[in-house]
Amino acid sequence: MKARSVVALSGGIGGAKLALGLYRTLPRRTFSLIVNTADDFDYLGLRICPDLDTTLYTLAGVPNPDTGWGRSDETWTFMTVLATLGGETWFRVGDGDLALHVERTRRLAAGEPLSAIIEDVARRFQIAAAVIPATDDPVRTRVVTPGGDLTFQDYFVRQRCEPRVESLRFDGAGAASPAVAAKRALESASLAAVIICPSNPYLSIDPILAVPGMRTLLQTSAAPVVAVTPLIDGRAVKGPTAKIMGELGIEASPLSVAQHYRGLIDGFVLDVRDRALKPRFDVPVCASDTFMATVSDRERLAREVFEFALSLDRSRRRIS
Amino acid sequence: MKARSVVALSGGIGGAKLALGLYRTLPRRTFSLIVNTADDFDYLGLRICPDLDTTLYTLAGVPNPDTGWGRSDETWTFMTVLATLGGETWFRVGDGDLALHVERTRRLAAGEPLSAIIEDVARRFQIAAAVIPATDDPVRTRVVTPGGDLTFQDYFVRQRCEPRVESLRFDGAGAASPAVAAKRALESASLAAVIICPSNPYLSIDPILAVPGMRTLLQTSAAPVVAVTPLIDGRAVKGPTAKIMGELGIEASPLSVAQHYRGLIDGFVLDVRDRALKPRFDVPVCASDTFMATVSDRERLAREVFEFALSLDRSRRRIS
Q: pLDDT tens-digit profile of A166-202?
């Protein structure tokens, strides 16, 4: 029998944690990760793809343990000299990290699609899973605030998520198509599960789903779709998920997240600390410890999420 | 009385040595250095200007003492990671050096002329002399060899000057103009001397002189023009000058260099080791120790060259 494949949807740091767990516990060559590209931006004339890069470094085993982003064994000479030249330094880029940005920018300028570049980089980093940008087309998150529209990195890094979010917009999404490899992975007859990682639903997963066709690919896939809560006891482990939900007038509860994915998911993984909410979900729920401090936490959660998804296989029911 | 100004023409490492001597001994704000741009090239999608960069790092006091090019206190993480990505690594770029390339590339793409960028970089590096690209227009050296035409860096770095040089071509020179600041410096009424540094006459100085108008600017300037020999006892201190002269059928002698600059120079600085040749020059000659091992060697030679130039002031005679 052909090995059964798994697809996960992910943003950056939080999602990459579970992605690493899945990568380490699933048969590697059958694991595909569809990653948000709407945080990508041009900086110093270089194309930077924060979520893809965090994913690549995490799966390659070279994440920076101090920052959560960037590479391990990093040096910072470039930024130090750039500051003396009066260059922009608000987004920190390490010397080794820069190699990926420079090489990607050169290859994009030469006409290669982002997905082909990332596929090659993943291979060179000896990552035995498919790391796939959600789309090869430019989709860019714009954060609408009382002070005006902000690019994602301006909001997230330069302004440290301080402005109040009135709404979110994904520029370019309407004209985008899912990356061919993403479509192929979701259409595979051997697909056993689709897992939505505990990334920010509004900032990391929504821009993936905003690509026309992506939502339908999930809804019509042969496999159950399971989302993992990004909230524990009303708070995100890291990042502005709860703050943004509050600003958007949404209760910072896993119930709201499941509601947000309504019509798309067949099951929801709740944190054990929120198990009292279990009866209030209208999809099957699994209560797990979703806090991932260590690599073995990630592996354990990955196994539980995968087994939960498989348990839904026959009882599949998708609310629309 | 207004301070009298000096202009020097220079290529990379060899020329920058005397340039530093001039910079340290002359009143700084009246010193202008016109630098070769024909070795510039695009690499990894970045514009690299080897001669300008060597000059900037030398005058800023941060040259790499080990390599002769690049910066001191350099790290190499970028190149190490780039190699794992399969990127080109034949031209070594340090992490700090990269800041200049990335920032310059960004500013050029935004439409700034090279001369404006270099002027700003020099100011930020606290260089109190004018560092001026010979031209803002693209001029590129092509080395014609039995195996075909090579770009300069391909010849110089990748093939270590091994191919036989049949001829040299400066693509784009015909359509180029001298940088405005170069023209202004050479037209200044306060100009006391023009010094052609001991750079390779064929590879470093010729492409400057190939820019239409540059030769006339030297010939009609108010000041004597003095060239400093790049050869000592038939050999270059560093680099392929003597080898190329042999391949071009030119005797590797300072007499040939003076002959090459005929019609342009009013005096020639010969190395003391070649003083026996003195009677054979048809311009005034000063014999100096032109070997510059230390910074004080550079300062001493700079003083001697400058004084020699001033001595020619009244007896000016240019052969055409």
A: 999 999 999 999 999 999 999 999 999 999 999 999 9
pLDDT value of position A4: 87
For chain A, the maximum distance between any two Cα atoms, rounded to a whole number of angstroms, is: 62
Q: What pLDDT is stored for residue B3 in this prediction?
A: 57
Does the pLDDT at position A232 exceed 70? yes
Question: In one letter, which amino acid is B287?
Answer: A
Chain B residues near residue A87 by CB distance under 8 angstroms: 99, 102-103, 106
- Is B103's CB within 8 Å of A44's CB? yes
Nearest CB to A85: which of B79, B80, B121? B121
ipTM: 0.91
Nearest CA in chain B to A96: B78
Q: Which residues of B are less than 8 Å from A121 in CB distance?
A: 85
Closest to A257 in 3D by CA, of A320, A209, A306, A199: A199
Handedness of CA A271, A272, A273, A276 (dihedral sign): positive
Give the model's confidence band at A319: pLDDT under 50 very low, under 70 low, under 90 confident, else very high.
very low
Minimum-distance CB partner of B74 among A77, A84, A105: A77
pLDDT(A124) > 80: yes
Q: What is the DSSP string of B72-121?
A: SS---HHHHHHHHTT---SS---HHHHHHHHHHHHHHHTT--HHHHHHHH
CA atoms within 13 A on the CB side of B10: 33
SS (H, E, C) A175-215: HCCECHHHHHHHHCCCEEEEEECCCCHHHHHHHHHCCCCHH
**Percent share of chain B, pLDDT over 70:** 97
Average pLDDT, chain A: 94
Of A45, A94, A100, the CB nearest to B85: A100
Q: For B85, which of A82, A85, A121 is closest by C-beta distance?
A: A121
What single string gives the DSSP state of each residue in A260-282?
Answer: HTTTT-SEEEEEGGGGGGGGG-S
Q: How far is A111 from chain B (nearest CA, A)?
A: 13
* Domains annotated on chain A, with CATH: 5-60+127-311 (3.40.50.10680)
A293: which 2 tokens? 């401090």
Q: For testing the chain A interface, which of B74, B78, B93, B104 should be mutated: the one with the most A CBs within 10 Å?
A: B78
Q: How confident is the model over B109-162, as pLDDT tens digits?
A: 999 999 999 999 999 999 999 999 999 999 999 999 999 999 999 999 999 999
Amino acid identity at A215: R
Taking CB atoms and an 8 Å limit, are B94 and A86 in contact across chains? no
Task: Determine the longest span between alpha carbons in chain B, in angstroms.
Answer: 62
Pairwise CB contact (< 8 Å): A82 & B71: no
Average pLDDT over residues A65-87: 93
Mutate to test the interface with B, among A41, A73, A76, A78 (most CBs of B within 10 A): A78
Q: Determine contact, residues A14/A230, Cβ cutoff 8 Å.
A: yes
Q: Taking CB atoms and an 8 Å cut-off, how many pairs form between chains A and B?
A: 106
Cα–Cα distance measured from residue B135 to residue B112, given in angstroms and rounded to the nearest whole number: 13
- Whether residue A98 is predicted with pLDDT greater than 90 in this model: the reply is yes
pLDDT at B1: 42
Residues of chain B positioned with their CB less than 8 A from the CB of A79:
99
